[in-house]
Target: Transporter substrate-binding domain-containing protein
Amino acid sequence: MTLSPEHREALAPRGHLRAALNHGNFVLVGRDQSRKPFGISVDLATEFARACGLDLEFVEFERAVDVSSSATGDLWDICFLAVDPKRAETIDFTMPYIRIEGRYLAGAHCNAADAGALISSGAKVGSVDGSAYTLTLARQEGAENLVLFENLGAALEALDGGKVDAIAGIGDAMAHEGATRPGARVLSPPFMEIRQAMAMPQGRPDASRILKDWLSEAARSGLTGDILERHGVARSCAILPE
Model:
């Protein structure tokens, strides 16, 4: 990809590309033993920076809400977040590139047979404040029974202590946590399909067009699928342009 100096400046006004990472979603990003970030988001950012001929810097956050709420603060140039209409007020999203399920993890003390029964029973459901699944659940039946927590660890502590009947989260994460808790189980069906995209702050149309075009081509060429498979995510989870 050949870019003019003007386009490089539009993408990286600080002279290098700053990519925000959300460590709240371990499906997309994690840290190795030396605390260096790795994962799907890291690889996508690296490939995009290489295609643009830009140096890359990672700006690390622990929660999605920390990324989305800083969109107007000139802290980052690109990010990786689930598409949501509230976030789109300040963030310009690309097409989604991966689909991830949102599921409930019910505690051993919860008798709900499935996700529908959980909600109809009026059970208390813990969820991480500002996450994509919380934003969605807040617009659905049962929103009045949501109990918000600062992070997943706090939500799991409430589940273990019987303060909530279940917690909402990313399907793979819920399965991982459920496997360590006797009697806990992930409920079907998923309550949502979380569609993750790349994005940048609103008000940068030229830069946004470059990012959108690049990601569409990465999906068509199979690069996105290659990256997903590299990190243990099924290639079928990749979303192709329509």
About this structure: The longest strand covers residues 91-106. The chain is about 35% helix and 25% strand. The chain has a mean pLDDT of 95. Residues 17 and 56 are 5 Å apart (CA to CA).
